[in-house]
């Protein structure tokens, strides 16, 4: 199976490529569903494609927002520019955009985005007849659904499926809540993730009429959490008229913690509320099942993630795809920031995390290893570490290994606080120009984005990372 990795920017693309991705997906500065990612300016795309292709890695570009008329008008020039840059595939969710791409850039493969909710072979056959090379499965499909799709779809139509990362509570990501609450549309790439916010869920008790009291605080929404609601945007809400008290329907209301006094009606059925804090997807232990179901490409979610996250997750999946047992690699996915893990819809209904609204991780990213020479590791500092600290090296295609910080020095000619006119502008230039006198002994690396060096106990590939074992949790728990 192809391993398809996210690239929210050039650092993430390099990490994905070096840690074993077969292909990357990215967005230019428009038409992508992750507008908050760094993304790529159009003039940066050729260099990104060239780097990936030099390493035998394909580049897929997302064009999967909800298309309005002005968007369609801008697509021909956009697709032609990406074609000239050498990209390998477009990931498209809109049928009009799909047609435009086929007309103006016929060399580039067209992949049907999960935003199109392809969940059956009939839909897949239609897209294939229009020129699709690949469909990305709807996030709600089970393994059995995918196996049936593979059996009934054209044999030359490739199937891509998500294997890891955040899950959206809406059908294939087509959510209206962000637009409703904040005016920022998730379908246009500006999702504020309101399904992750902390809410109070209460009920308008028909037996008490308009006499309401504030509900007790709860972290997130869950099917068993309830309290008493206090009102609506228009003030206190009386029970609906036209019913006897015992016949009046129960009404649920939400209050988000940063919008006190605003109350949103909400319905709840036996599956829970329709706003959900979904568990993150983790299929590391089930790659064989995905392959047997007919999946050609497994996709890692995360274009808003940093390079350290991309390297860690891509590296873990690469090692298992290359034959290591998943249980030997599983802890790598606990090392990076994540919500509680689940297996999505592949084996049963996807699960919420009803008592948990944040992230945890078992390591912290300390530095990027930018060079290894003359017995030293050269480091771009990200978080504070000190002489004598026990750290780990995360390098491509191998398990993490321990290293002790020894002989730590700081380069005093480079960094955000160095404003000399002749100061080096890049890491590479700074290392090339550094003299022995520029390296100052340091008890700690405590200047972010500054260069340090420490003794190396063995050669390390540039592009690796230093991390520290330290458990962190950024979350509140419900009762």
Which fold does the CATH topology of the largest domain refer to? TIM Barrel
Task: Tell me what the CATH architecture of the largest domain is.
Answer: Alpha-Beta Barrel
H/I helix tally:
12
Share in helix:
10-25%
Q: Tell me the strand order in the biggest sheet.
A: 1-2-3-4-5-6-7-14
CATH superfamily of the largest domain: Aldolase class I
- Overall tally of domains: 3
Average the pLDDT over all residues and give the rounded result.
83
The shape, in one word, is globular
Strand content: 15-25%
Rg over C-alpha atoms, rounded to the nearest angstrom: 25 Å
Give the class-level CATH name of the largest domain: Alpha Beta
State the end-to-end distance: 42 Å
Uncertain regions spanning at least 5 consecutive residues: 208-249, 268-274
Structural category is alpha/beta
Sheet with the most strands, sense and barrel status? 8 strands, parallel, barrel
């Amino acid at each position: 199976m192809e391993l398809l990795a996210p690239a929210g920017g050039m650092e993430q693309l390099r990490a994905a490529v070096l840690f074993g991705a077969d292909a990357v997906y990215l967005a230019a500065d428009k038409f992508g569903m992750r507008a908050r990612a760094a993304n790529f300016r159009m003039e940066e795309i050729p260099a990104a494609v060239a780097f990936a292709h030099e390493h035998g890695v394909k580049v897929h570009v997302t064009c999967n927002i909800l298309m309005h008329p002005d968007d369609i008008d801008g697509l021909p020039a956009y697709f032609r520019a990406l074609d000239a840059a050498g990209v390998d595939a477009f990931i498209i969710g809109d049928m009009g955009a799909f047609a435009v791409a086929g007309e103006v850039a016929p060399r580039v493969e067209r992949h049907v985005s999960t935003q199109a909710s392809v969940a059956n072979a009939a839909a897949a056959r239609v897209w294939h007849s229009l020129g699709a090379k690949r469909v990305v499965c709807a996030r709600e499909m089970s393994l059995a659904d995918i196996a049936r799709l593979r059996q009934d779809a054209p044999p030359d139509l490739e199937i891509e499926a998500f294997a890891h990362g955040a899950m959206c509570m809406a059908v294939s990501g087509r959510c209206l809540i962000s637009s409703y609450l904040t005016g920022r549309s998730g379908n246009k790439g500006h999702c504020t993730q309101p399904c992750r916010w902390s809410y109070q869920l209460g009920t308008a008790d028909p037996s008490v009429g308009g006499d309401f009291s504030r509900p007790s605080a709860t972290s997130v929404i869950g099917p068993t959490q309830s309290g008493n609601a206090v009102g609506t945007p228009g003030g206190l809400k009386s029970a609906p008229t036209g019913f006897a008290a015992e016949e009046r329907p129960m009404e649920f209301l939400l209050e988000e913690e940063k919008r006190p006094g605003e109350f949103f009606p909400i319905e709840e059925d036996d599956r829970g509320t329709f706003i959900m804090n979904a568990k993150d997807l983790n299929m590391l232990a089930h790659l064989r099942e995905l392959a047997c179901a007919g999946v050609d490409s497994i996709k890692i979610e995360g274009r808003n993630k940093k390079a350290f996250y991309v390297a860690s997750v891509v590296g873990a999946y690469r090692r298992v795809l290359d034959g290591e047992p998943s249980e030997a690699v599983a802890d790598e996915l606990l090392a990076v920031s994540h919500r509680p893990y689940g297996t999505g819809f592949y084996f049963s209904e996807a699960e919420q995390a009803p008592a948990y609204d944040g992230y945890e991780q078992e390591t912290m990213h300390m530095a990027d290893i930018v060079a290894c020479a003359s017995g030293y590791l050269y480091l771009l500092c990200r978080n504070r570490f000190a002489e004598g600290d026990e750290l780990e090296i995360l390098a491509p295609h191998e398990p993490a290994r321990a290293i002790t910080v020894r002989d730590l020095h700081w380069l005093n000619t480079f960094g955000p606080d160095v404003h000399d006119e002749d100061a080096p502008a890049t890491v590479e230039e700074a290392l090339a120009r550094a003299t022995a006198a520029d390296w100052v002994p340091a008890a700690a690396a405590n200047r972010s984005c500054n260069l340090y060096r420490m003794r190396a106990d063995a050669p390390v590939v540039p592009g690796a990372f230093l991390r520290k074992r330290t458990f962190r949790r950024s979350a509140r728990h419900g009762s």
